[in-house]
Design brief:
It comes from Actinospica durhamensis. GO terms for molecular function: ATP binding; ATP hydrolysis activity. This is ABC transporter ATP-binding protein. By secondary structure, this protein is an alpha/beta fold. The protein folds into 2 domains: about 210 residues, 3-Layer(aba) Sandwich (Rossmann fold), CATH 3.40.50; about 80 residues, no CATH class. It is built from 9 helices and 13 strands. It has a 6-stranded mixed sheet with strand order 5-6-7-3-8-9, with helices on both faces. A 4-stranded antiparallel sheet has the order 11-12-10-13. Strands 2-1-4 form a 3-stranded antiparallel sheet, covered by helices on one side. Strand 8 and strand 9 form a beta hairpin. Helix 5 packs parallel to helix 6. The protein is elongated and about 70 Å long.
């Protein structure tokens, strides 16, 4: 299998609103993927299409080499936890595990029981009486006990406090390590993604702005600080992603080979939050002045072309 998710020109409309547009993406297996972007960017729509809950309006998509929800066997290979980490308030924790066993052919009852014990959940407790963090952990337990090859998580920790988020992420990574599951984790909390994700997709205004392995993306993006100048004066081979200017100084975020400090020139590394926010800001603003290459205003990721 060459990709866990392949999309080409994928689009989804709700009436007049375009929720996803020309989404072209190829995600290799074996990664924990951070799907990041502002609210309304199309993250939830993409994940709902990927798990078969929504049909696209245009384009095509394959998940684990097949159409989403194309067969019962394909459904069994994909786990999904929605944004509100849904559980059934009137059912007990034990009832949820029984339901999972009855509806999933690859169900791992021992794994489910072990996780419930580790979490300290009372099997007799009604889900409606659990805290938000406990409900999220119950939903994750059902998803991982399904033994999926791909786990789709739609902002599962958005409503949790910092301690509950950290606990959720720790249990998620333990499950991934034990089972070798590929994960696509949607979030707008970059600090959470930075700890667990080794692949990044930035989705802004319903379009993919950036995609690739996190280490590679951080290694090919830099901050350049220098005396005030135009982007066109930068060395060839650099793509300007963002720029700010004061009366005397210019700061550029660029994609390309690292340039050594020369004279008033300083090149600095970026962290993941810097990288994500730069692409989010750039997508919401008019394109900057052209840099030193003819394609300098084309910020479409190479693997999304």
């Amino acid at each position: 299998m060459s990709a866990i998710l392949q999309a080409h020109a994928l689009g989804k409309r709700y009436g007049r609103r375009q929720a996803l547009a020309e989404c072209t993406l190829e995600i290799p297996p074996g990664h924990v993927v951070g799907l990041v972007g502002p609210n309304g960017a199309g993250k939830s729509t993409l994940l709902k299409i990927a798990c078969g809950m929504l049909a696209p309006s245009s384009g095509r998509i394959e998940v684990l080499g097949e159409a989403p929800a194309g067969s019962p066997a394909q459904l069994a290979r994909v786990g999904y936890v929605a944004q509100d980490t849904p559980v059934y308030a009137g059912l007990s924790v034990a009832d949820h595990l029984k339901f999972g066993a009855a509806t999933n052919p690859r169900w791992d009852a021992a794994l489910a029981r072990t996780r419930i014990e580790q979490l300290g959940l009372d099997p007799k407790q009604k889900a409606g009486r659990l805290s938000g963090g406990q409900r999220a952990q119950l939903a994750l337990t059902i998803a991982v006990a399904k033994r999926p090859e791909l786990l789709l998580l739609d902002e599962p920790v958005a409503s949790l406090d910092p301690l509950a988020r950290r606990t959720f992420m720790r249990h998620l990574m333990e499950s991934v390590a034990e089972n070798g599951t590929s994960v696509i984790l949607s979030s707008h909390l970059v600090s959470d993604l930075e700890r667990v994700c080794d692949y990044l997709v930035v989705l802004v205004s319903s379009r993919v702005q950036l995609a690739g392995e996190t280490e590679d993306l951080l290694g090919t993006h830099h901050r350049i600080v220098c005396t005030r100048r135009e982007a066109s004066s930068l060395p060839a081979g650099l793509t300007v992603v963002g720029a700010t200017h004061t009366e005397r100084q210019s700061t550029f975020i660029v994609r390309g080979p690292a340039e050594p400090p020369v004279g008033d020139w300083a090149a600095e590394s970026l962290d993941l939050e810097d990288l994500v926010l730069t692409y989010m800001e750039h997508a919401a603003e008019p394109a900057p002045a052209a840099a030193a290459t003819p394609s300098s205003t084309d910020h479409t990721p190479e693997n999304a072309r």
